[in-house]
Amino acid sequence: MRTSHERGIAEVTITVESTIKFPYKRSLGPVIGPFMTALAEQRFIAIRSGSRVICPPLEWDPETAAELPRDFVDVGPAGTVCTWSWVSRPTEQHPLDRPFAFALIKLDGADTALTHVVDVESIDQMSTGMRVAPRWRAERLGHITDVEAFVPGEEAITVNGGVPGEPVTMMSYDASITYKIPVSDNTIKAHEATAQGRLVGLKCPVCERIYARDRGFCPIDTVELTDDHEVELPQRGVVTSYTIITPVQYPGQTETEPFSRVMVLIDEIDVVMMYQPLVDVPVEDVRIGMRVAVVWASEAEKADAGRPGNLVGWMPTGEPDNTDPSLANRIM
Amino acid sequence: MSRTRNDDIAVIGWSVSPMERHTAKSETQMLLEVVSGAVDDAGITRADVDFTCAGSCDYVAGVPFSFVQNTDAIGAWPPKSDSHVEMDGAWALYESWVRLLLGDMDIALAMGSGRSSTSDPAILYPMEMDPFYLAPLGADHANLSAMQARTLIDSGMLTERQMAEIAVRTRRDAKSNPLAQVSGDFDVEELLAADYVNAPLRLHDMPPITDGACAVVIARADKARELCENPVWITGFAHYTELHNPGMRDLRSSTAATLAAKAAGVDEAPIEVAELQASFTHEEPLLVEAMGLGPEVSVNPSGGPLAANPIMATGLVRVVEAARQIRVHGRHRTLAHSSSGPCLQQNLVCIMEGD
Q: Which residues of A are less than 8 Å from B123 in CB distance?
């Protein structure tokens, strides 16, 4: 994550750039699975739907939504371009890193068109009705990109025959999107306050509820909250609820051992900070009523550019627990 | 025409945000402002709204469950009956309309919001596509649309010059729309001299990237009469979808648009103005023909999506512009259209009438 300044239409806005990855794994099912398996074998298959031959195959009749019998038929490998578009600036998601054409290709024997790419040197070599054939990838996984591209002509460019392997049942699709999100003034102020070792909130002038410093408005009264509404918060409180999280190792999860997140009701004022980390408290010792105080990052920790913020978490103060049973109701 | 049935539902207020290439505001802040604007316009407060429905998209927002944050804009305390569609706000309006037809609530508010400037549409849009056959190729909205445009050109139904003429007309019309992002006087020859972006599409054939939001208040007849001097009655509302994969459709037309227009009653009386979500120039004549609109119908006098395209709100803005033609410009019967999915896969038609 990094920040940059970008000139908007009327003002300079600070943006945060972040890339979200979507590492999808999908099961293919009884129709797309055999199609992908055939791709790994350098073949195309289609499915019969009445008198029509549908490629790429679908599980259901497009007209009636009835489940189709698994009546597969080989099509292609050559086909005809029905229509096409030209990509002069490919993105990292495209199968080719040089200008190419997207095309709807009716493979020989099929009644519907497959969407794929055509690799030619220039737009002048593209035309509707042109004949194309697949250029197969050397390493095939049972994926739509096992066809590296279609190329002009009648002859498929195959690699070492097409030895059948195991049926393909799963596919990966790793997408990622980079966002440049404008950062609000209140978010900047919130970071500045924590960098100074201050815990601050914003108090709604109508209902007097106190919100986190980075919130832009009171959601109950729909009143905009600004610097004028800033209030200093005490840095001590009491745990009103907690959860112990056993991390599932999804992509991006860095925790490996069970850890806690607690709700902290701040002393003197009516505000609960949600999902706060505890510092140096074994998960079996976490309990409602525990008195806690803020822990700020040390100078050494602050110097670590990889750290997300200055507030490390909360640590027990050693005071006796608050035994008020109604505390457990304070989670917001 | 007199409205005696309480099941008749009318648009009684709306608000559209500024249409900007980059906004510094969050989606929630944009919604906060248009919800305030729409309830003010309807002469009510948030507390009077019985049901809310929002249209937005997490992939556009770059935030999981972004619609949960967006509920902050509706004043959801005490709790409100609320829903969300991962569709344009026009579909949120459809759900709101269906909800009011149940008869136990009087006022609903539909919203649409999108801040699509934060990412590259060519990277974002494949996420909308079939995850097996289309998305892994990086097939995006613009390229699939470009292939539909070429189908029309190859079929002799349209020329690149006619597409440029549509751009010139909509940009000229947009000059009188204070919310337009792209407007002005342009020359067809100059537009045609520009390079292709995704051939056969040039920049003028494509919508701008826009951040924006829109909110619309609707009410059942008795409440609409009580609150509003000039309610805009929704007399027909329908949406249809067809196959997702463009390679399996006849791209020369849009069956879903034809069916939606017919179901909404397009041919029951003359339409004076149609606000169409034609996001690409070639989609306009295709939709006009698919919906059976004659040459007497004024199409996209606001400039349409080619003038401003706030993804997830573009269709709801069409409803506002079609309603504005009745409330402000004295038209009697207008049509709003919204579309979603590659090559006009899903189509919604809302027909409105004045008293």
A: 91-93, 177-178
